[in-house]
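Hi L.,

You mentioned the student needs an example of a multi-chain input paired with its predicted structure. This one should do, with 537 residues in total across all chains.
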Amino acid sequence: MESASSPSYKASTNSVETIPALVVRDLRKNYGTTIAVDGISFDVKQNEIVGLLGPNGAGKTTTINMMLGVLEPTAGSITINGIDLARHRSQALEHTNFAAVYAPLPGNLTVAENLRIFGLLYGVPNLSERIEEMIETFDLQKFRNTKCGVLSSGEQTRSGLAKALLNKPPLLLLDEPTASLDPSAARYIRETIVAFVHKSSVGVLWTSHNMYEVTDVCGRVLFLSKGKILLEGDPNKLPALHGKSSLEELFVTVAREPLTLEASTLEVPSA
Amino acid sequence: MNVRRSYAIVLRIFYLMRGSFTRVFPLFAWAAIDIVLWGFITRYLDTIQSTFNFVSTLLGAVLLWDFFTRAMFGISTSFFEDVWSRNFLNIFATPLRLSEYLTGLVAASMVTSFFGLVIMLALAALVFGLWIFSYGVLVVVIVLGLFLFGIAFGIFAIGIVLRLGPAAEWFIWPMPAVLAPIAAVFYPVAALPVWLQVFARLLPASYLFEALRAIIAGRVVPMDQIWIGCALAAVYVVLASWFFRQMYLHAVRTGLVARYSAETVS
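Structure written out for the whole complex:
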């Protein structure tokens, strides 16, 4: 795990008044009587990295799956770059992309082949140029003609991120993008993503269990517990507001004793 | 409808086929073995009697039934490539529309099944002297009707797999063999028991193979059979696409699309 004192490369939050990259309103997902996501609402602005945190089973991946259009919400709305996902699924998804540790690129195609296929699916203009740009950005030149299935975890992550940034999405969804990476590779990935955010005015929703990473990268975090947003605020200030010394300590409290935080949230002004 | 996105689906299959002996070989190998086996059987049968043309009738039927099977497997195998490589989440989280996905699968199947057909035709013509298209342009219409039926059946099959999960793949492979006895491939519908004839009449193949036998035997061409067969196949393509869409919507509602990837990894 990396030091909390590692150089911060947090994206600027001084966004101009533009359409938010993501607007989520009263989003809910029920599986029969089980409530996976319980009426959450939040925005992700352009040029902002928002951390979506919570213990396993809190509803993070369910939330991301709904934003990717592969899971239908029971209620609520998702708007990506001003386009309603439920009504204009295809157009809305042109404005997003994602990388997740559990969705690697197909292992039976090479890096270049995968990028071409997904570039066509996302309607990327000047595709050949863009593929070269991504291969260079993620240092994949050596693996251009290597099948993704034989790449190491780090190389697969970089390939997945190359796919995720291929269409310069206004909304980028990252589900534990640095999981299973060594600290050096993880830092490289973070720097690359943050540089992309700065350059392209993209909004990012980032899930991670690495609280040092979240503190470093995210301008704002949402703590999800049992499908609800329990806390929201600046990851540097939030722990102190709730009497905790670090974000990790706050995370553990959210995971183990969410009710104590629900009570304190009523007393503490919004972070 | 974005043609580029359908092209991406075809290109993916091309990339997988390119240089993959294990993928290209089955496109024609089993059909070729069928042609050789039935070619010798029918040639032998022709030597022991002369009133019925076994080579043209039975070998022609084998050839076209194998073509139907290839068209069906062209759809299902392309879909299975996404299942086997756990690509559902990646592919269905793109702007790809279902119609574009199915169009891509159909186009890929068209290429692979017609490639198989060419090999079978060449083998039948060169080794057994059967050139099925010498019987006229209506045979081409029958081939197209069988292609449509193969497409319809393939789309229906992948809908089942989408609904029941990857293990349901094993229901799909034997489907043509289950269908063959009631599709009147090798004998007329009238040879079936009355209750089975009802099912046979629901299958476009039964009309098309009846017509094929009439053409080969030099009887009056039953145009109505050809048109009914083709129209029924076209209706089944629409119904199968609707069925697949319902299965997809169910999978999106229940989270099955996302879990196809996530749960297999975890």
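You could point out the following to them. Chain B touches chain A through 36 residues (CB under 8 Å). Confidence is low (pLDDT under 50) at residues 262-266 of chain B.

Best wishes,
N.
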